[in-house]
Amino acid sequence: MKDMKSVKDNRTKSENSLDSLDVMGEGIDLSIQQEYDRFSETIDINNVDYKEVLKEIKNLFSDNTPTEAKKRILILLAHFGNAESYRIIEKYLKESEENLRDWTLLSLKECRMFLESALLEEEGGIISTGLGGKDNKFRYYFIVSSKDGLTFSETDKNTLKREFETISQKYNSEIEEINFEPNYAILRTLIPMDFAAGEVIEEGIRECNKVDDFLYFHYYLTNVRKPSNEEVFKYLEEIR
């Protein structure tokens, strides 16, 4: 399982293959995802006895069990990927400690992936990003800026909003939020995983510039977290 997956614009993907991918709705810190991946790689599930794991379940629900031991139990349950292990993780999620909530979510999603793959006899996968997603869409923040650092006029703002909304509809995407600053805009959007986010953004910039050539053909894109003020200013300085 990867913490972040770059999705290429591949029109040959079937709807069935998309349906087998589960985009996490809850954003999970990438450091936790990376730790989960590293921990998973140390476990050879073929050499683990499921009955022995079940004997450890009481430890999962015990306040006296060390955190690292609970992490191991959750990963083992996830990798067995059967209905019983899924129910155990689901039950633990309802009463898990705050510091293990994200870890438990990851294990639940991974267990579901293995379970569905076994039932459907096809390979599935989990795609998770720091910002999460909805249905088969990733959540992104991206920044577009004015040419020469000029202040956006009201006409510019209306054009940007209108054209990006039109392009979003074309690509079955959603603009959740637009925040305008004097010479740049930050947009939060949901883009289907079978489209390259850059393609959507670049087409939006081109359409805006057909109306009035006011956007710099460069953008900042992330699906890790909302850009901080420091990151925004650093980006703007770099492109100037």
Rg from alpha-carbon coordinates: 22 Å
Mean pLDDT: 80
Number of helices: 10
Low-pLDDT residue spans? 1-22, 120-128
Strand fraction equals 15-25%
Give the ordered list of helices and strands.
HEHHHHHHEEEHEEHEH
Distance from N terminus to C terminus (CA atoms, Å) equals: 38 Å
Number of separate strands: 7
How would you describe what is shown here?
The chain is an alpha+beta fold and 240 residues long. It folds into 2 domains: 15-127, no CATH class; 135-239, Transposase IS200-like (Alpha-Beta Plaits, 2-Layer Sandwich). It contains 10 helices and 7 strands. It has helices at 15-19, 30-41, 50-55, 57-60, 67-80, 83-93, 101-120, 154-170, 197-211, 229-239, and strands spanning 21-23, 125-127, 133-134, 137-146, 174-180, 184-192, 215-222. The strands form 2 sheets. Strands 3, 4, 5, 6 and 7 form a 5-stranded antiparallel sheet that branches. A two-stranded parallel sheet has the order 1-2. Helix 5 (67-80) packs parallel to helix 7. The protein is elongated and about 70 Å long. The two termini are 38 Å apart. The model is unreliable at 1-22 and 120-128 (pLDDT under 50).
